[in-house]
Amino acid sequence: MNNNTENTMSEARNDFGRKPITRKTKKLHPRVDLTAMVSISFLLIVFFMLSSFLSRPTSMDLGMPGRGRGCGGGGCFFGTDVRMMTLLIGKDNHIVSYFGDMPYLYEEPKTLTYGENSLRKELTERSNRAVKHTGDPKRGLIVIIKPSKESDYGHLVTVLDEMAITKIPTYAVVDISPEEEKLLADK
Q1: CB of 110 within 8 A of CB of 122?
Q2: Matching InterPro entries, A to Z (predicted)?
């Protein structure tokens, strides 16, 4: 026999009617899941929008004293005395309010208590009077709050709540002076 036919015969397999053992592999197309990428990019966009909003410069209105000095019956006072009210907070629901600088008071100091009929009523009346005097709602009452060493934190919070209730936009908490401590003790 021919060598060439022997090789072909030995290489040929008999499958006896069965399918061949080696299967054809399916060609899979690679697929990238972008779900995580979309959620991360959404979070980054939100973060940068929020951080750019918070980093914007903001301005604040300042209540500055008037330029001129005026002298009235109670002594000389600055032009903002009609707008500037000082509250001295003492112990046991004791509040003293006055207008003007300490040596030159615009009016006689008043003794007030917490509540609608005393402190809130005084703040509302003075605020309306200040707006009427200036003619500008933005230039309303300025309240300086000075808690004494005998007052407790709850009294200060109550006065700050009254500022929010009466919608006084400009107020500050400042240290009390020895002269004001004496005035608070006398009243």
Answers
A1: yes
A2: ExbD
